[in-house]
Amino acid sequence: MIYKTMYKHDFKKFLTEVMKDNTLIAPVIKDYDKNKKPVYQFDQVWDYDEIDFNYTKSYSSIKNFFIPYEETLSRFDFSKSQWSQQIEYTIHPRVIFGARSCDVDALLKLDKVLMHGHFPNPYYIARRKNTFIIGLDHEAFEDCFCRSVGSDNVSHGFDVFLTDIGEKYFMKINSSKAMDILSGFELREVTEEDQDDYKRIKSRIRESFTTKVDISDLSNLMDLEFESDVWKKWGSLCLSCGSCAMVCPTCYCYTVTEEIDPSLRTASKKRALYSCNLVDFAEVAGGHNFRPDPEKRLKYRFYHQHRGFVESYDEPKCVGCNRCGKACPVGINPAEIIADLNKEHIMRREK
Ligand code: SF4
Ligand code: SF4
């Protein structure tokens, strides 16, 4: 890792230049909610002034730039008695500006499955390799619990990570590509004063986490509380809408459909994000549904986050952003469910 600083007016020049040859994706205000608070999303920008540098939390995560809601995997054409297949992996080089530590950590978790897993996903890999990531530090929001799950700091998975230290950005430069590009701009050496500012701001960020979630023994607890009424309590509320998985930065379940044109001359194979909370997620041929109740589906979503992934990778899949809790129309959220499981377990032990 190389540490440098850059004045904000120089960083503006850098991003403006980057926009000329790359697609720039950054946080922007998309709408206002019923309390007149801005709704932020990551989207393509064409002008530096469109970027909201003070954005809070984007409604959905940057995951969707790597795993879109829907994508065409391949197209087929039938002519002269022969099928031909077209597959497109390539994308225009892009820069994502403003990713939070938990967003970058979520990408690292997706990399483990979709890049380094048993079945690497070439579509994901092409997008990941052609995306330059610029992270941006921030103080925690009321509902963030990324510190509890170890996602409040990242040391890789990005090209540059910025901390706002006043007139300058403190920059962690993590790739030779980033160093090459940034060298053409006004990079500065880190002074003692910059270091002090950086440490002061990092400690303020650390102290800003108010929501704490105890995951110390959660993967075992998941097994011990498999039949817990906690699942009934929260599951009975679940509408099986799937919104939680759509906005979650680490949920990657999908479905594949094939569409054949009535002329029988063209066809396509499409993949769409899916959710394990949807009613037919565990339905198999013949119509049997292995998880017919919302409580079972909710439980298994949590199992994947805090039990299955831990078993495979020694870390939870959840990065503590609480996007699922914000998107859920009935207020189902991980912090309260995990607190209930911990409480239930203690009560049982004390009986
Ligand atoms: S808090 Fe919710 S949305 Fe965020 S990573 Fe965990 S499960 Fe996904
Ligand atoms: S968003 Fe809430 S109601 Fe919808 S599936 Fe997820 S937990 Fe259930």
Structure write-up:
The structure is a single chain. The protein has 11 helices and 11 strands. The chain has 351 residues and is of the alpha/beta class. The chain folds into 2 domains: 2-207, no CATH class; 218-350, no CATH class. The strands form 2 sheets. It has a 7-stranded mixed sheet, sandwiched between helices. α7 (229-235) crosses α9. The termini are far apart. The structure holds iron/sulfur cluster (2 copies). One iron/sulfur cluster binds at residues 238-244, 277, 298, 327-330, 332. One iron/sulfur cluster is lined by residues 238-244, 277, 298, 327-330, 332.
Largest beta sheet, briefly? 7 strands, mixed
Low-confidence stretches: none
Order of SSEs = EHEEEEEHHEEEHHHHHEEHHH
Average the pLDDT over all residues and give the rounded result: 94
Count structural domains.
2
Number of strands: 11
**Nearest-angstrom radius of gyration?**
22 Å
Helix fraction by DSSP (H/I, runs of at least 4): 25-40%
User: Could you tell me how far the N terminus lies from the C terminus, measured between alpha carbons in angstroms?
Assistant: 52 Å
Number of helices: 11
As laid out across the biggest beta sheet, the strand order is: 1-9-8-7-6-2-3
What's this entry about, in short?
With 351 residues, the chain is α/β, with parallel strands linked by helices. The chain contains eleven helices and eleven strands.
